[in-house]
Amino acid sequence: MPSGRNDGARLSQDNSIYRGVLPVLPPDGALEKPSRKNAATAASAAGVRALSAQAIAFYFRAPVKAFFRTRVDYLAYARVVHQAQTELLARAVASDHTSSRLGLTLKQGWQWARGTTPGLLTTVIQQQGWSVVPQQILPPLIANVGVGAILYTSYLQILGQLHEESSRPTQRVFPPPEPIHTFTAGFLAGSIQSVVAAPLDAIQARYNHHDLVQGNGDKPRSIWSFSAEKLREIGVRGVFSGWGLSFLKDSFGSAVFFSTFEYVKAQGYYKFITWYYSGLNQDTVDVLARKRPSSQDENKPVVIRPHYAIEPMFLLLAGIGASFAQQVLLHPLSYIQIKHWDNLEDLDAKTEKVRAATTDKPRRRWGMLRAYYHAYQATWTQCTSEAALERKGTIRWLYRGFWWNTLR
């Protein structure tokens, strides 16, 4: 059969498929694959938008959690390992006189990168293996999450009892709670946290002064085994031996933090937008209103939606201001607490020697409580003595390094 007839028949058959009114659409089968692809893309985009909206909504419902300070340094052991390697590298660089200036600069840059959080984790995992994560890194993380959850949950529950509007599950609380409400709720929540975290503070005090690498060979002891052994050794009285300073830090620190944060976030925000938008003329108000009013009706108020960047800006200012105000109180108490922990470690060692030497004699019931009380006096005397040696006042000595510790 001639090829021309076949081409004509095929052309007429194809035209019958696309017959219709312009614009001509291909048959349903031709659209099946693109439609499925578009549906999958739309579903993915909708899912991402939903997750992003939930994350943003959660942050705005509970933004204060983003500014909490961690109670325990989960990289403490990694820093010990990094410090040991840094000293070895410094000795090697000092003894190497063949390296160029560029080589020394690259080594210093590499050492700085190893000092970051990813670098610390990589270094300690390479040296100790993956077992260091559940033994040394994961326990402090779990402790921080648990203590933070107790603090924030207690704060919300207490604030809801003191201020009824705060107990409602809304994005914005209006009228906002007064500073006396947030201060009281923060104080009580911090007090609860100090009681719950007392064993954690006792373990941290002893663990920071413990030889981290002693044990079987070069294998470090896990925090789990060390914590269980130390709690059995010091008992309940040892757990609460340094609780007075922890109570001051947690109760007043949380009170100052929450009251400052909530005041700047709520009262400061509402006062600013009231001051800013109340001074605008009528034309600017009509432009900024959600809907331009069709008539000048004085009985119908004009609703203006504030700029979307103002509220996040006040959230950031609230977090910075609350952290700074809290650090003003916590910084000197932290120095005193470190000195007190040193004295408690020495006191535990002396107590253990006395118990071993006088096993046949009855123990005095209030002897240890009296010793812990005198430990506070010894701590304060030690702080004033060191301040006098450096020819500084006690307050000035306690606030040394304040700006660096606050900014980092």
Automatic annotation (TrEMBL):
Keywords, sorted A to Z: Membrane, Mitochondrion, Mitochondrion inner membrane, Repeat, Transmembrane, Transmembrane helix, Transport
Superkingdom of this protein's organism: Eukaryota
Keyword Metal-binding: no
Localisation: Mitochondrion membrane
GO cellular component, one term: mitochondrial membrane
Protein topology in the membrane: Multi-pass membrane protein
Coiled-coil zones: none
Solcar repeats: 177-267
GO molecular function terms noted in the UniProt entry: transmembrane transporter activity
KW Repeat (keyword) present: yes
Main location, first listed in the record: mitochondrion
PROSITE patterns: SOLCAR
Family matches, as Pfam families: Mito_carr
Family according to the record: Belongs to the mitochondrial carrier (TC 2.A.29) family.
Name of the protein in its database record: Mitochondrial carrier protein
Annotated organism of origin: Xylaria hypoxylon
